[in-house]
Amino acid sequence: MPTPKAQCEELVNAVLSVAKKFLAAHGEFYPFGASMKPDGQIVQTAAYDGREHPPSEPLIDLLRQSFRAQAKDGAIIASATVYDVRTIPPGATDKTDAVAVELDHRDSYSVIVLFPYTITGGTVQFGPAFAHKGTFAIFGKHDG
What phi and psi, each to the nearest 5 degrees, are found at residue 70? Predict the structure, then answer.
């Protein structure tokens, strides 16, 4: 049986390719996500609040709410919420663009992985990824 980390890595692979396509085509992307069903199927998710050009935070909140509802019903075992941020990578002093992937798994695994990137001539290049502890925003934190 795959570990929570391995299942979350599958989600990362699924969402990172989507983010890269949007960045290459448009130089940006609206927050989106993906979830994993108990059978391992990955489902991509988008959020829409009715506005043509919404700010990111309300869309991130909508994604989290949707994932929390699905988690409560047992419909998903893991989620990935994806958004564009500016961050300072370890060892650097200047902010850079990065794709943030918030990963949550029902088995008390939560991490935020950041993928710094540059876009040159329509080509997206990711730098070394780094991670922070997650907030357990979808499934909550529990022992065992």
Answer: -65, -35
